[in-house]
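This is your field. Have a critical look at the following sequence-structure pair:

***
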Amino acid sequence: MFTEASSPMPSELSPTAREALYSTGHSLLGQDRHAEAAALFRIMLRLAPTDERAWLALGECHEGASHRGIALELYTAGVAAAPNAARCELARFRILYDDDRTDEADAAFESAREIAERSDDCALLELCIRERQSRP
């Protein structure tokens, strides 16, 4: 049986371990096993606190469990922790817009768009455009 005392948590993740955690977490998320997926993404964040994907995935777990306020806090934390976290900004945009907090939503969208433009990532810029167009 795993216990933290007998098996201390490593101080960082190898790229292979990070991908395995991420993949397993998303598999659980796809099965609507939000709490279990969230536990894996929390481990990822303890070991890789600037990983935007982990912040985004943990937020998705909470959205899936109808904890939108917590999800928004996590996306906001992801923006603060991960440089150029455009996807976290887009997630913030979506929640804020749906909650009729349009000024904040617009600011989150503009931040995401600016990050995408600076990155020269065409797919990311197209994602921004699709997200904006999905909200009238």
User: Anything to note?
Assistant: The first helix runs from residue 15 to 30. Confidence is low (pLDDT under 50) at residues 1-6.
